[in-house]
Amino acid sequence: MSPESISSWDDYPVHQAPEYIRHPATSDRNFYDRYYFNLHSSSPDFFAIFGLGVYPNLGVIDGFMAVTADGTQRIMRASRPLTDRSEITVGPLRITIIDPLRRLRVVVDPNESGVALDATWTGSMPAFEEPRQYLRSRGAVVFDTQRFAQLGRWHGYLTMGDREVELDPSVCGGSRDRSWGIRPVGEPQPDGIREGVSVMAGMWNYMPVDFGDHSIIYMCHEEADGNRPLEEAVRVWSDPDRPADWLGRPEWHHEMIPGTRLLSSSLIKFPDAPDGPIELRAEPLITNFVSLGTGYGMDADWRHGMWQGEQEVVQCLSYDVDEIMPLAQYGVVDSVGRFVYDDPKSGPRIGHGLYEHGFFGPFPKLGLRDRGDVHP
After folding, report:
1. pLDDT band of 1, cuts 50, 70, 90
2. Among the four 24, 101, 210, 308, which has the fewest Cβ within 10 Å?
3. pLDDT averaged over every residue in the chain
4. Is the residue at 48 inside a domain?
């Protein structure tokens, strides 16, 4: 036994395998366990995204905060060797679980990036188990992940450069997810037989939206030939005693900005919703190009789980949003979205939430004929 195997979590009855908690049941290098949060004011004012992940088989814990406001995207990112998995902190970022599945506090101490945060998140709906994502590419499992999602409200303070904003939970909302399992992380591996093959080709949509007394969660991974490895359409009520409504197979219609891979608006239809068809109209208000600078794969020197050395590393970046768009549009794009649908019982319903999309490789339905193409 390694003297580094025992950790504080081993004193709790939470083991899932004949191993110490420090060691996952799988030895796959790509095993991860991650937090993701977003925070917005239900307006185009600002959009903050932050997260923290542990990578036990790579020996790394890292995290980031990215804030878009006034045409600038400010990023703090941090990494250190993983020690005790119960210590949910790296660099200036730390997460405290106040009431599991209900309330969490996230703090980013002041740092050279100009972004800082001290905010408490309270769930406005029960945590909801999303469908498991499983993808195999030319023989190898590249995705095998489990995730739950939750909409909530924020209160506290956010700093962006020389601005400090008080977060009013009546307008400051966001979503979070907790995911774990296997997905590509760390230093790039040799492609081998998968040379030139995208691990998640096609269109990705993820839109969790808060409408007050309920949330709608729409998710769709559609490949170029129309196959859908993953989809979700559900209405989750804020009342924990009211069961969720499955909305059936979702249909999408996207309008793209010419010359880009970005969306200008969307119409998401749920024709088989139990109380009658729902047509959800969406538009982006402000965009955070989270794929650049935060570890989601576009930076050769900084990927989630990448070893940054024996000492803790904290780095601070600042980008002009218009300047990074031509590159960042090829990754996952996160926006604050405004969503509207007509409820036959109560009339128009307006909500805000995450308007996330990505187009990886060709997607002919929207005029993307090859991996570098943009909408005509």
Report:
1. very low
2. 101
3. 95
4. yes
Residue 374, domain member (yes or no): no
Domain that holds residue 253: 29-182+198-366
Domain total for the chain?
1
| Distance set, CA 99 to CA 31, 36, 189, 259 (Å) | 26, 17, 39, 46
Query: What is the per-residue DSSP string for 186-246?
Result: SSPPP-GGGTT--TT-EEEEEEEEE-SSEEEEEEEEE-TTS--SEEEEEEEESSTTSPPEE
pTM, full prediction: 0.95
Give the domain CATH number at 271.
2.40.370.10
Cβ atoms of residues 216 and 250 within 8 Å: no
Q: Which ranges of the chain does DSSP label H, i.e. alpha helix?
A: 321-328
| pLDDT higher than 70, residue 3 | no
Closest CA to 46 of 139, 119, 102: 119
Q: What beta strand segments (E) does 312-346 contain? A: 313-320, 333-343
The single residue listed with the structure tokens 């219609």 is 253
Q: Is 373 inside any structural domain?
A: no
Cβ neighbours for 98, distance < 8 A, ≥ 6 positions apart: 104, 105, 120
Confidence bin at 2 (pLDDT 50/70/90): low
| Alpha carbons 120 and 154: distance in angstroms, whole number | 6
Asked if the structure places residue 187 within a domain, the reply is no
- Angle 55-358-123 from CA coordinates, rounded to 5°: 60
Split at pLDDT 50, 70, 90, the class of 222 is very high
d(CA 370, CA 372): 6
- Residue of 32, 30, 76 whose CA lies nearest to 50: 76
